[in-house]
Design brief:
The chain has 396 residues and is α+β, with helices and mostly antiparallel strands. The protein contains eleven helices and 14 strands. Helix 1 packs antiparallel against helix 2 (35-49), helix 6 (251-258) packs across helix 8 and helix 7 (268-275) packs across helix 8 (286-304). Keywords: Heme, Iron, Metal-binding, Oxidoreductase.
């Protein structure tokens, strides 16, 4: 399942305060000694530079806890198994692109999707991100806007498609519904750069239904790997704006949202027609019937293709296991009830009746970042900012 960002903005607090809190948590949960010495070291580093550098162990632990405390994710029972790749020393577009490709390869794992996070250089005080990725996920399909206002492909990606065209990308001569968007990567030293996604690393699944042969004629498909790339990892007061990560898909993320939503691929009516349903009135519940069939197709197709996929009921039950584990450990369960209950058969899900989540959003955590493209407020780094980065590089 994909991880969803917090609905709140990250707190703007004292870096030293957050650092001390995180270091105590790290040493306590890992049962390590020496916290006083490490705190003193970090305080001194912050006093001189305004920030500090995590050890490799602290970074890995912080990334895992960020997932554990991500209030909108139902799949957190697996938090301890997250593979964290420390790539803080990779700071060029070419190097980042190479690591993103490696991330796809490792996370795909032959279809047995595993959770991976790749963490690049942290943000700097007074300067901001050292690197960032414009795409909201590493694998997305274009939204081609026609002259008549219609969209071929994913309407959610129209703005991003326009943005990459503005950077010089040329769409296929005959635009399709599932054309891969290129990546846009920028660093403190390099302008936004187009990077073609390695096509051989993108696994896709054609959607079919076990009971309805006509479903295949809809020619629907989806990619196997949801790698979120527009969220900021915050650990102990330090932000990492370039830290793409993935889980594996939950069926209704594809079946209900991507395929069913009117503002996405909008497939409810075509499926209802294939089923011969009465769509003239809402009280026939034709939409509910159609979306259930699409979800069945997603589960069937991914399992037939040998690609890891979860259903809402199993994940809801596993989330209750996670809640019990956290309570035994003496930790509050942070959760957004409206996000933890899926959109298919939600009334029967185990977590529906579990309403005592702690609604605060603690750090470490994952935070939604502003969209980089299409806004003057989040324009690419200016030349002056790049000079500032170069000037401050040695100090940090």
């Amino acid at each position: 399942m994909t991880h969803s960002p917090s609905s709140q903005a990250p707190p703007v607090g004292d870096v030293a305060v957050e650092a001390v809190e995180f270091l105590h948590l790290f040493h306590e949960e890992r049962r390590l000694s020496g916290v006083a010495a490490r705190v003193a070291q970090v305080r001194e580093e912050i006093a001189v530079t305004g920030t500090y550098r995590h050890t490799g162990e602290e970074l890995v632990y912080g990334a895992k806890v960020a997932w554990r405390q991500s209030a909108r994710c139902v799949g957190r029972v697996r938090w301890a198994g997250l593979k964290v790749r420390d790539r803080r020393d990779v700071t060029t577009v070419a190097g980042i692109a190479q690591e993103l490709a490696r991330h796809l390869e490792l996370a795909d794992n032959g279809g047995q999707i595993r959770s991976v996070m790749t963490v690049f250089a942290p943000d700097r005080p007074r300067v901001g991100p050292r690197a960032r990725i414009w795409n909201d996920q590493l694998i997305r399909y274009c939204g081609h806007r026609a002259d008549d206002g219609s969209v071929r492909g994913d309407p959610a990606q129209v703005a991003m498609t326009d943005a990459v065209r503005g950077l010089g990308w040329h769409p296929p001569v005959a635009p399709g519904r599932f054309d891969l968007l290129p990546w846009v990567v920028e660093t403190a030293y390099e302008d936004p750069t187009l990077v073609e996604v390695p096509r051989d690393l993108v696994r896709e699944v054609a959607l079919t239904h076990p009971a309805y042969p006509w479903f295949e004629e809809l020619r629907l498909r989806w990619h196997a790997l949801p790698v979120i790339s527009n969220m900021r990892l915050r650990v102990g007061g330090v932000d990492y704006s370039c830290a793409p990560f993935n889980g594996h898909y939950l069926s209704d993320e594809i079946g209900t949202r991507n395929m069913g939503d009117g503002a996405r691929y909008d497939q409810l009516l075509p499926v209802a027609r294939g089923l011969g349903l009465d769509t003239s009135r809402e009280d026939t519940l034709w939409r509910e019937h159609a979306v259930l069939v699409i979800n069945q197709a997603v589960l069937h197709s991914f399992r037939l293709a040998g690609v890891r996929m979860s259903d809402p009921h199993t994940e809801s039950e596993l989330f209750m296991t996670f809640c019990a584990q956290e309570e035994r450990a003496g930790r509050p369960v942070h959760g957004d009830w409206s996000w933890l209950n899926g959109s298919v058969g939600w009334a029967a899900l185990h977590a529906v009746h579990h309403r005592y989540y702690d609604t605060r959003v603690p750090n470490p955590n994952l935070w939604q970042t502003d969209r980089v493209y299409g806004s003057a407020d989040v324009a690419p780094l200016t030349l002056r900012q790049r000079h500032d980065v170069a000037r401050l590089r040695e100090a940090y």
